[in-house]
Each structure stands twice: as structure tokens, then as C-alpha cells.
Amino acid sequence: MDINMGNGGIGVPVVRRDAMAKVLGVAQYAADFPHENTAYAALTLSKVARGRISRLDTAAAEAVAGVRMVLTHRSLNESLGDETFVMKGGHMQSSFLPLTSDEIHYAGQIVSLTIADTLEAAEEAARLVAIDYAREAASASMDDAGLTEEPADSGIDVGDAEAAFAAAEVKVDATYVTPAQHHNPIELYAASAAWQDGKLLINLPSQWVMGTRAGLAKVFGIPIEDVHVESPYVGGAFGAKASILPHVVLVAMAARRLGRPVKLVVPREAGFTVGSFRPAARSRVRLAATRQGKLTAVMHDEVGQSAVIDHVAFAGMEATSKMYASPNIRMRAATVATDVNSPGFMRAPAEAPSFFGFESAMDELAVALGIDPVELRIMNEPARDPVSGLPWSSRLLVECYRRGAALFGWSDRNPKPGSMVAADGTLIGYGCATATYPSAMAPSSARVRLSADGSCVVYCAAHDVGTGAYTVLGQVAADVLGVPDELVTVEMGHSRHPSGPVSGGSITTGSAGSAVHMAARAVRERLFATVAAGQDRSKMTLADRHVVLPDGSRRAISDIIGGLPGGVIEEHADWKPTDMDDKTMQQGLAGGMAFAGPVGGTHVSFSFGAQFAEVRIDPLLRTIRVARMVGVFACGRIINPRTARSNLMGGMIWGASSALLEESQIDRARGRFANTDLASYHFAANADVGEVVVEMLDEHDSVVNAIGTKAVGEVGIVGMPAAIANAVYHATGVRVRKTPILMEDLL
Amino acid sequence: MRPFLYSRATSLEQAMSEAAQSHAAIMAGGTTLVDLMRGDLTGAEHVIDIGHLPGLAKVELDGPVLRFGALARMADVAELPFLKQNYPALVESLQLAASQQIRNAATLGGNLLQRTRCVYFRDGVSDCNKRVPGSGCTALDGEDREMALFGASDRCVATYPGDWGTALAAFDTSIEISSAAGTKTVKFADFHVAYGDDPARESILQPGEIVTAILVQATPAGRHSTYVKVRDRQSYAYAVTSAAVALELDGDRVTAARVSLGGVASKPWRAPAAEAALVGQVLNQAVALEAGRAAFADAKALRHNGFKIDLGARTVARAAMVAKGKH
């Protein structure tokens, strides 16, 4: 471990460096960048879920004053490079690119892009594109009759779980259902494209500027260096902006054909099908235990909604299989293909749905055993990963539970359902659940420049998707270089910067942070070498813009660097996770998806958390309110407690929202999402959120990476839906095995 | 979007004259009309802005009839001390609607004329007799949790979404309508039209007519009144069920009652059966629940909204008990 705790860079709750810019409205988002002479685009979407376009008439649309182009499958008529689906090693949000054929694969598919001098004219023209469809029967719900389950992979087997389950003294066998959900970031999907001398400049909100660059280069058949992607600020992403959405390609294509910049902001309702979504899922969980509460079998069968156009499986078995000590484990995953836009990554894509079922089942087992749910989890704590047998890089789940139970006041809980009632008759329920998320990492580069005045600039093509990465990466550099945090500038979100990883899988701090750490150390080494060649560098330190020599004497950075040619020290670093080979690293740095972990050669690395909820239920109306949430997490070293807390708290609030509100309703008769606006797709308002307590344990992980950080971004959501469902059971005695849990489920 | 003409009216007379032309739309606060126009749901070609016209925002509460100017803002009216004290149901219905920002802009008259939140009406795509007469009603075999139990037909099962209108139905309310022909008042019960044969028609308002005031007969029942709104989300959500109850009491005995229902009907829905079940009774939880059940005795459920019969009855019961407990 090489962390200089003396400078206050790491572990300090530094205020977000972009906070004021965002509060004042001066932070420019993708749609805010004005290209000169921009034309505006609007979408027309398919009204049917499956079939073909049988008639297309664009005459009325083209007659609207100011319309410059109506791009349809007829007029696109150009082959695009065979870039593939992001989950098949490419960068596209879907294998299917709209306007490349007359086929309709899902409702809300883009069927034309109109471009005009004004947004109003483009929208009017989009309305006037006349299309008839030869409609075919469609199934947008995995519950439709006649659909079949396809195994998603070979599963996980330890021991003989079926036999152990059959022979067990106490068991639970239940099925839990979660709905489709949509990200609905407040910043809508957008793209603004301009071509100059054969080079593409594109502004869009992105979690992966390097991947977007590589993918667009392939689509348009141009060198990767000729694509420039800008995404300095992102107004919510949650996985939705990690791949190239179809409108991005179409906007860039239109801009090239028109020889003029084109901008599109995708309206809210269109975002439901232009982007991806969290697919519906079903978990059958079977748990068996001795009467004393020792697990003897853990079985989890997950079935997830997939798409006909893209096979997508988000099974949480890698995490659920590792939660508890059991000699017998059996995990299976399957998918059901439906006529929908391709599902995609959304906050804890595998873990959030699967832990609702898995941790609800643990609660049901605790009830069946008559054992406290917290104690049941603690007594089944595994010393090593029960699947691989490898040790954990760190695992403080038991400590999370002990601390969380104390913070929450778990000992006040009367285990009898319905026994805790407020003076006004309100039913009170306490519930808990485990959260976990894999600590994976990806290769990353970074460049750090230190100037004579002590100012420092960090360059990395990573992203701050609202998480605080601008602040956190700056703290890493400040810590190594012994400069005040306010002298550090961080440049991210542009593909011209040294390669950064996708902002997905909660990897940014561990990956880009490690690269920044490496580059900053290289700067420091040069500083030391410059100031005192031949001296023992291991005995030198940096503090307060001075190098402290082994004899205690101090040399100002300004003096050292001021004398150098150019007046700066600048170093580039290419960092990779320990277990990754060089070839994979190079693929990753070139904009490919290259992850290492959470299971490495010697260790298994996950973040953990214990989550608690208090619900209050109206005895007459059965409305459910979350009065309190407590989450205690162990995520390795916390670089910035303020931004980490905010991430975890946001996840917990989203988990509550998911438990009680969020569902993309599928109109099965028409095979489409029905509630495609924010008046009918509910997520939590401030009034729905009671007290939220977040604590992070002081966890030292010397294995996971050079800076000791584990995944923070997504773990907060994972246990919350089950904790709330378990609390609802405790308040009412009614076990609801689906989300959202609505008042009618308790009537 | 569709090209349209926007004009700021300089007088009520001018607005009434312009509004008499076809495809004209009156805009007051603009909070609902702009949404509807963005969704191409109005066919409006001429928007006549009356939001700034003087004299129409006046609220007079000291006579035998409470008079609310149609342009009074929801947020302002919700803060009036006299109303809070004497007509809590009206204040609560305003406070529980929309968001503070919307209430700051939205007017009382415009609020009455907001259109249904039925997703099939709003999506601009599905068959909808309200949007495209004769095209059919998608909700009949679609997602129908939000749909109506009362006043619906096989042509339309959408609900009236308003809170203020539901609360007004629990009082003796009239609507003042002005046009070039003069000013008239109509009973509130006759102002909205249940979605029967012609779902596109939601009120009796004719082209050229403008709501200029809302008139509520003063009543001692106002003091014992409340509006209870049950919704999935704690704020900024439409009612799954709601109820307004206004009572006159002699001790614990109900001498007069008005009950109205929201979230369950195609228009603000008065429930005389519930009123009858309350009057003459010593009000307790059992009587309140009985009244709630009476309110829903004639409800017609679809596939997924049957729970609202039970929930709606409970909502009435809660409202009755809260109303009793006021002052």
C-alpha cells in the first residue's frame, strides 16, 4: 500500500469540484454544445411491435417548410460497418440498427429521422411521415403463452444440492418476480454530430467515450483517430449510456449526408425504446437448513426476459452463490426471448433483481426456523468463497450486520409479524437484507502534469456520471503529489484523453484511480530524481508543495520544476489489473470491453453491505411508506466519504423506489410499454424518502488494487428491495413475492 | 409540432370572440395545455392566452357564496387562512395536487378542465375514442389499473384526474361561464360529462365559452370537511382513489353529508348512497366503512382495478372519520 495519508487528499470529504458549475447551470451537457449552423432532428417510432413496413410515404413530411432530409429504411440505403452488440464484444446498444431494413422488431422502433432547420419543423415532419404496417403477432412479456425458456449458461454446481434439499429438515421454495424497469435519467438521450474534413465530432452523454469512439469508427469505416467523442457532464446514466444507442449512428449519418451539424434530443417517451431497459425476471429460490440454521442447500433458478434481436442474460448467480456457506449449491439461469428493444445494463443489472428473490427467501427461511434474520446470515458466513474455495480480498459482512443492527435499533424488533403498532394504529415493520457487488476492474491510462506553481492536471478518458469521479480522481493525484486539492484540475469525458474505462460495473475509482495513482507516482519519481540524484528516494516525501529530503531539508516544487525545460513534469501511465495479460489490456485501452475480477487467480473480491428498513403501513388504506433506511457497507478504502455516501444513499433510495413504485408496464395485447412518461412511470419523490443512514466501515484491502478501493457505485441498491419486502412481511404477515409492492397487495 | 397561432387576449370579450373560432384553445396557466400540445392531443391551431387578464383572479369568501375567479392560482388559494379554517377539503385538494411549481402557475379554472391521464390517450399512438373518435378503446383489454369504476362505457374507461374538481363535488358548487351571449351559471354536477357515447366530449363548454368563476354555496359543513388522496407515490401523483367528505354534525350524529369520489370515475363523482348511509347515524369506524361500501355498491370493475372497490370504500371511511375529527 502506498497511500500518503498525511496530505489529506484521500479519505477527505472534499466537495464535488463540479458542484457549483452544476448548481449555477454553467456545466454544459451534450445538448448544450452549439455547433454552428446546426440542423435539428426528430424521430418517428413504430406503432406496432412486430412486422414489416408495408407503405411509406414521406411526401407530406418533406413538404414541411425547412425540412432538409427524411431518413428512412428506403433512403438510408447504405451499408454500415458490422459493429456488434455491446454484450458480444462490440459497442452497440443493440445488434439491430433501425432503418437498415423494413422489419419491425419492437414497438417504438425508430422508423424515420427527420431533419430540418428548426426543431418545430422537424417534429411536424416526423408527425407527417405516413407509414402502414403488415403487423404480426408479438410477445413483449415473458409471461405470454407459447414462449420457451432457453438455458443461458452451464450454471454453478457445488456438491449435490437437489439431494441435500430433498433430505433437509427445514426448507423454503418460492418464486419471486421483478418487472421491467427503465433508467429514465433526467438528462435525456441526445447526440449532436458534426463532420469536418472527414472527421466526426460528436457530443453525447456517455459512460464510455473510448468505446463509443471505437464503435463509431467501425460503423463509418474511418480511422479511430478521426472520431472525437465529447461527454464532459452526464445527467444520470445508470448503465443506459454505456453503449452506442441507435439514434447516435443515425444522427451522425444524417450530418455526414447533409454536410451540416445535426442535433437530436430523444423525447422522454421515445427513450423507453431507443435506449435499453432492465428486463423482467423471475427467481425460484430453494434454501434448505438444519434446525439449528446451518444452510445445507442453496438453489437459485433465474429466468430473465431477453429480446429476439439480442440474447441478454443478467443472472445474479455469481453473487448469490457466494453469499452464504453451504456445502451444496446449484445455480441455473435461463432466458425468454421477447419482441422488445434490447435489454441492457441498469444499476446492478444482475444483482438487483436476483437479490430481491434471494434475500426474501433468506427471510422466509429465518421465519421457518424461528431464527433472527440477522443472526441467520451471520451464522452462515463463509470463511472463503464457497464456489472457488479462494479467500476473499476482504469481507466484513458480519461487521456490517453488527454495526447496522446497532445503528438501526434492530434489537427493538419483536419478531412476531404485525406485533409492532404505533399509537395511531400504523403497522411498523423491520426488515434486513444483504447487499453485495463484484469488485471488477478494467485497464486504464492516465496522464498527470505537475507545473511549477504546484498546480496539477489529471487527464483520463473516464467519466463523471454524477458520481463524483472528477473529485475522487483529483484527490488521488493530490495525495501522491502533496499538493492542495484545489490546485488539481481533472479533465475527463473526452476521447482525446488517455484511455479510460467504461463507467460501468462500479470500476471507475479502482481502475482510472489506479492509473492516476500510477501516473502521479511517476511524476513524483521524476521530481525526486531531479532534486537529488543518487539519494535514497524511498526516504523522500512530498508535502505542502515541497519535497522533503532524507535529511529533513525541504525543496520547493516551484524551484525544482521551474528549472526544467517546459516548466512541467508530465507522465503517462498504462495500468492494468494484476491478473490481466497484456493483450487484453491493449484491447481494453483501445476501447474494448476488458474486465478482470471479481474472481482472480488468488482472491475473490466483492463489496458487501447490510441494509435495514423500517416501513410504516396504514392499517386501513394499506399504503406503504419507508420511514427509515440504514445501510452499512464495506467497500475497501473510501477516497471521498462525501461522494461515496451520496452514491450509496442514492442506491438505497433507488432500491426503495424499485421496491414500491417502479415498473414498466407491458401492454401484452399490443406488445409495448404502456407507461412511457414520468407521470405514469413512478419513481420516488423526496416525500417518499424518510431518514437514510449510511455508514462505511474502515476496511483495509491490500489485495484488490494499489489504492485499496472496492466497488461503491452499485452496491447500495442491491439489498434494499428485499429489506423492504421483508419489513412489509414483518409489519403485516403478508409475504409479497413481487415488486413493486403496491397497496392492493396488502388489502 | 403543429404550427399554431399564439395571441395574448387584451380583453375577455376579445378572448371569447376568438375562442368561438374552430381549433381555438384557451390558455390560462399553461401547465396542462402545453403538455397536451406537445403530445399533439388538442388539434389547437390558435392559442388564446388569457392568463394575465385583470379581474379574473379575485377570490371573495365573505358572502353567502364563495366566489373563486377562474384565474386564481392553485398555490395562492391553498394559502388563504379563511379557507383553511372553514373549508379544509378545498385547501387539501389543492395542496395534494401536482407539485408546488405547477400549483404556482396553474389556475383553478384550468384545473377543472385538465384531461385524463389515461396512458392510451396520452401516448398518441393507441386506439382511443377520446383522441380519434371511432378508433376504439385500447384500455378495454390493456393496462386498466388506473381506469374508472363509474361513468365509463365500452367506448372509454378513462378517469377524470383532478383533485380540486372532486372536492368541489362535495359542495353545492356552480360554474360561471361567459361568452359573447352573456354570462350563465351551471350546476357543477352538469359541467363535466361522463364518458358515454362521446368520450371526446368532457364538459358542456362550447367554443367561445370561458369559465370565469367557480361558485361554492357557503355551508357549515365546510368546517367538517376533508379530502383524502390515496396514491402510490407520496407526492406528485394522481389519485388511485380519493374522497372528499363534508359533514354537518350534531354531536357525533351526522345531520347532513356530502361525499364525492376521485380516481374512480369519468368525472367528479358524487356518492349519494354514501351520504344516505351517513345521515342520521352516530359516526364511527363501522358506519364510515358501511358508507364507503355503499358508495361503491354500483361500481363496475375491469380486470385489474377491482381492488379500488375495496380501497375506495376504505378511502371514504377514512375521509369521513377525518372530517368528523376536524375542529
Keywords, separated by commas or semicolons:
heterodimer, A: 747 residues, alpha+beta, Aldehyde Oxidoreductase, domain 4, 3 domains, 7-stranded mixed beta sheet, B: 5-stranded antiparallel beta sheet, 4-stranded antiparallel beta sheet, 28% helix
> So what's the CATH class of the domain at 220-325 in chain B?
Alpha Beta
Number of distinct helices of chain A? 19
Secondary-structure class of chain A: alpha+beta
Number of helices of chain B: 13
Structural summary, described in words:
Chain A is of the alpha+beta class and 747 residues long. Chain A has 3 domains: 33-138 and 183-271, Aldehyde Oxidoreductase, domain 4, CATH 3.30.365.10; 347-439 and 601-746, Aldehyde oxidase/xanthine dehydrogenase, molybdopterin binding domain (Aldehyde Oxidoreductase, domain 4, 2-Layer Sandwich), CATH 3.30.365.10; 441-581, Aldehyde oxidase/xanthine dehydrogenase, molybdopterin binding domain (Aldehyde Oxidoreductase, domain 4), CATH 3.30.365.10. Chain A is built from 19 helices and 29 strands. In chain A, strand 19 (456-459), helix 13 (469-481) and strand 20 (488-491) form a beta-alpha-beta unit. In chain A, helix 10 packs parallel to helix 19, helix 13 (469-481) packs parallel to helix 14 (508-531) and helix 17 crosses helix 19 (720-732). The longest helix of chain A is centred in the C-terminal third of the chain and has 24 residues, at 508-531. The radius of gyration of chain A is 27 Å and the shape is globular. The termini of chain A are far apart. Chain B has a domain at 220-325: 2-Layer Sandwich (Enolase-like, domain 1), CATH 3.30.390. Chain B is 28% helix and 21% strand. Chain B contains 13 helices and 12 strands. A 5-stranded antiparallel β-sheet of chain B has the order 4-5-8-6-7. A 4-stranded antiparallel β-sheet of chain B has the order 9-10-11-12. Chain B has a 3-stranded parallel β-sheet with strand order 1-3-2, covered by helices on one side. The longest helix of chain B is centred in the C-terminal third of the chain and has 19 residues, at 307-325. The A-B interface holds A 45, 47, 120, 123-124, 127, 269, 620-623, 625, 660-661, 665, 667, 669-670, 674-677, 679-680, 682, 684-688, 740, 742-744, 747 and B 1-3, 40, 117, 119-120, 122-123, 125-126, 138, 141-143, 146, 230, 232-238, 240, 307, 310-311, 314-315, 317-318. Chain B: Residues 1-221 form the FAD-binding PCMH-type domain. Chain B: It comes from Acidiphilium rubrum. Chain B: Keywords: FAD, Flavoprotein.
